[in-house]
Amino acid sequence: MQELLDRKKGLHRKILIVDDEFIEREMLGNMLNSIYEVEYAENGALALDTIRREKNKLSLIILDLHMPELDGYALLEILHSDPELRRIPVIVLTAEKEAEVKSLKLGAADFITKPYEVPEVVQARVGHSIELAENSVIIHETERDELTGLFHKEFFFEYGRILDDQNENMPMDAVVIDVNRFHLINELYGRDFGDNVLKTLGKSIHEFVNLNGGLACRSDSNCFYIYIPHQDGLKELLPVQIEKLNGVFTEPKIYLRVGAYSDDGSRMDMERRFDCARLACSRLNKSYETSYGFYSAELHDIELHSEQLINDMDKALAEKQFKVYFQPKYNIEGDKPYLCSAEALIRWFHPVYGMISPGEFISLFEDKGLINKLDRYVWNEAASQIKKWKDKYGVTIPVSVNVSRVDIFDPLLGDMINDIVTDNGIKPQDLLLEITESAYTDNSQQIIDTVTALRNRGFKIEMDDFGSGYSSLNMLTSLPIDALKLDMKFIRNICENKKDFSLVEIMIKIADLLEVPIIAEGVETKKQMELLKSIGCEIIQGYYFSKPVPPEDFEKFISGSGMAAASLT
Question: Does residue 171 fall inside a structural domain?
Answer without folding.
Answer: yes
